[in-house]
Amino acid sequence: MANELKTSEKTEVKEVRKKEGLWKRIVRFLKDYKGELKKITWPTAKQTAKNTGIVLAAMVVLGLFVVLLDLAFSQIIGLLGKIGS
Questions:
Q1: Which among 28, 6, 8, 30 is positioned nearest to 17, based on CA atoms?
Q2: Is 25 within 8 Å of 33 (Cβ atoms)?
Q3: What digits encode the pLDDT tens for the residues 40-50?
Q4: How many whole angstroms separate alpha carbon 13 and alpha carbon 11?
Q5: Cβ contacts of 25 within 8 Å, gap of 6 or more
Q6: Cβ(67)–Cβ(75) under 8 Å?
Q7: Using CA atoms, how far apart are residues 59 and 64, in angstroms rounded to an integer?
Q8: d(Cα 53, Cα 45) in Å, to the nearest integer?
Q9: Does pLDDT of 71 surpass 90?
Q10: What is the b/e burial string over 5-43, where b = at least 16 CB atoms within 10 angstroms of the residue's CB?
């Protein structure tokens, strides 16, 4: 792999970075951060609305499932309480 650094080159890079001052490291971080943000492909408004709808629908379905389980378990516990009395 041509893009990979050799082990000795990696250690040299780490040593150089350790010698850099705090402000140079912060500036380098911010430049790298800005470069990474440019690579992001943001979803369109339509995709965002669709994904939001999917999440809301999943929340409703799971909420109903939890409510049904709660009702079923409360009925079972009620029956067990009557049997034990």
A1: 28
A2: no
A3: 999 999 999 99
A4: 5
A5: 17
A6: no
A7: 9
A8: 12
A9: yes
A10: eeeeeeeeeeeeeeeeeeeeeeeeeeeeeeeeeeeeeee
